[in-house]
Amino acid sequence: MPPRKKRRPASGDDLSAKKSRHDSMYRKYDSTRIKTEEEAFSSKRCLEWFYEYAGTEDVVGPEGMEKFCEDIGVEPENVVMLVLAWKLDAQNMGYFTLQEWLTGMTSLQCDTTEKLRNSLDCLRSLLNDSTNFKLIYRYAFDFARQSKYKVINKDQWCNVLEFSRTINLDLSNYDEDGAWPVLLDEFVEWYKDKQMS
């Protein structure tokens, strides 16, 4: 059987094939470009996002914070909010200033609710790293203190973390002659008395 002859493309066919290839390449490039623009961090979008919660002020206050937490799907008392505040270097609990928001969200590359929601697991995972945990723990002391009256000082606060990391649950390795603050000596004494009774 003789080989089939290939049909010679008509001049219109060649043009439509090129146009089809060009259109397909353009669509591919255009969808990539649009996707990249959506994924890229935008300071303008971040600023607009801030004012959704701040209203006309330059600070997100308690009411805005409540709506913000609701939108990202997190209770205000959830530990991830402390991690977020740490990342924003927020100075007052329940408030994010414009500067804190812009600096922190830029470092997180979050300019929308959805992007932040997608970053929550990553923020939570920072607590699993002992160095970050220690930094966040220390930050929490000043962040959570709402008045100048001190029940516990920062040194004691930091010693509680060290105590929790190094002393066994049954307190068997606690050295009463060690350099622990009196606060912890008293706690150990109270705990041992409680165990005996």
Give a quick set of tags describing it.
Recoverin, domain 1; two-stranded antiparallel ribbon; single chain; 2 strands; 9 helices; 2 domains; 197 residues; mainly alpha
Question: Mind explaining what this structure looks like?
Answer:
The protein is mainly alpha-helical and 197 residues long. It folds into 2 domains: 43-136, EF-hand (Recoverin, domain 1); 150-196, Cullin, PONY binding domain (Recoverin, domain 1), CATH 1.10.238. 65% of the residues lie in helices and 2% in strands. The chain contains 9 helices and 2 strands, in the order H-H-E-H-H-E-H-H-H-H-H. It has helices at 11-39, 43-54, 62-72, 79-88, 98-108, 113-125, 130-144, 154-166, 182-196, and strands at residues 59-60, 96-97. The chain has a two-stranded antiparallel ribbon. It is elongated, with a radius of gyration of 29 Å. The chain starts with 10 loop residues before the first helix and ends with a helix. Residues 31-35 have low confidence and may be disordered.
Instruction: Sum up the overall morphology in one term.
Output: elongated
Alpha-beta content class: mainly alpha
What's the gyration radius in Å? 29 Å
Stated plainly, the CATH topology of the largest domain is called: Recoverin, domain 1
CATH top level class name of the largest domain: Mainly Alpha
Would you count the extended β strands for me? 2
The percent range for strand residues is under 5%
- Helix-strand topology string: HHEHHEHHHHH
The CATH architecture assignment of the largest domain turns out to be Orthogonal Bundle
How many helices?
Answer: 9
What would CATH call the homologous superfamily of the largest domain? EF-hand
Strand order of the largest sheet: 1-2
